[in-house]
Amino acid sequence: MLVLILSVSLSLSLIACGNSNQNNQEETAKQHDHSAIPHEADHSMPTGSEMSMDENKSITDLIDDYLALKTALVQDDSKVAANAGQKLAEEASSIDVNTFEVSKQPEIKEILEVVKEHGEHIAKSEIAHQREHFEGMAKDFMDLLAITGTDRTLYQQYCPMYDKGKGGSWLSDSQEIKNPLFGSKMLTCGSVKETISMK
Amino acid sequence: MKKWLKLSLWIVLIVLVGIQFVPVQRNEIEPVTNADFIEHYESPVVIGNIIRASCYDCHSNQTKYPWYSNVQPIGFLLQNHISEGKSELNLSEFGLLSNRMKRTKLKSILSQIDNDKMPMPSYLFLHSEAKLDSLKKTLLVSYFDSILVDIDR
């Protein structure tokens, strides 16, 4: 039993370490997938293994909450969106910034504060206002993912008609356009601007 | 029956007089610091005056209290309002925010003014000088917009 637990946790931490180290080693990792990951992991195991696990999980949860919010807005469901906003705010404030690299901490902290602010407003507003805050968050989310990496491929999508023609962005986990800024009023307005791929 | 009515009126009166002596914390923190929005951005006088008149009673550390704020329970209600306003946006401490947060707050400010959500109608009812006519509104919107652009740069 103990052996089983150990081996499971070891393999999990290997995966986690592999992920965080791939930022610099993307090319290597692509070419030598199998050899590169365990090798990289050996270096950072003693201090880094658990840390990067937490880090990845918290960002994964945050992306999940964001996408749940997006789906609610696509469906014009203000109530579900409010709950999703609440969850997003709670997740953003529960993330321990200290689990990230020191040099990245200040910006991550600022981004999470802003995400929390948006989430709180979404939790208590009507749908037009919810959408404003959701749109306002897109750039911050992209900045965050550029720093932390993401566990899945995401697409930045853009509809030029939002906000009286000023345009608006959001992130989606599917290439297909389902517009959360207009919902059923203009469900297909938009196009993919950028692909944010897994690191 | 009449006796009861008389008694309850007396009780109401005593309570009303009594609460006049409950101290209310007033939102008049001096002095104005460099973090103050108008100081921080060295806003033109015209703009600064509009912002002070229309926003500062509820969104700064310097509320200009009307006389009836000394009458309770009106004063309590006002204080509640002010703390709520300040928790959303405190212009006296705007300079301390991160650029990212400044941007977020400015976008909210712009949207609130643009959609006539702020200043609140209930506030304007007793503060006609705070009303943003279309000229003031245009001035403020383009001013806040220009600050937003500067932050993004």
Which secondary structure elements does this structure contain, and how are they paired or packed?
The complex is a heterodimer of chains A (199) and B (153).
Chain A: H1 2-31, H2 33-74, H3 78-94, H4 105-123, H5 127-148, E1 154-159, H6 162-165, E2 168-172, E3 191-196
Antiparallel strand pairs in A: 1-2, 1-3
Helix pairs in contact in A: 1-2, 2-3, 2-5, 3-4, 4-5
Chain B: H1 2-19, H2 37-40, H3 45-59, H4 74-88, H5 99-114, H6 121-124, H7 134-152
Helix pairs in contact in B: 5-7
**Structural class computed from helices and strand pairing of chain B:** mainly alpha
SSE order of chain B, one letter for each helix or strand: HHHHHHH
How many beta-strand runs of chain A? 3
Radius of gyration of chain A: 18 Å
Low-confidence stretches of chain B: none
Strand arrangement in the largest pleated sheet of chain A: 2-1-3
Q: How far apart are the termini of chain B?
A: 74 Å
User: How much is the average pLDDT of chain A?
Assistant: 77
How far apart, in Å, are the first and last alpha carbons of chain A?
33 Å
Number of strands of chain B: 0
Mind summarizing the main beta sheet of chain A? 3 strands, antiparallel
What is the string of helix and strand elements of chain A? HHHHHEHEE
- Residue-averaged pLDDT of chain B: 87
Domain Haem-binding (chain B): 13-148
Protein name (chain B): Haem-binding domain-containing protein
Pfam families (chain B): Haem_bd
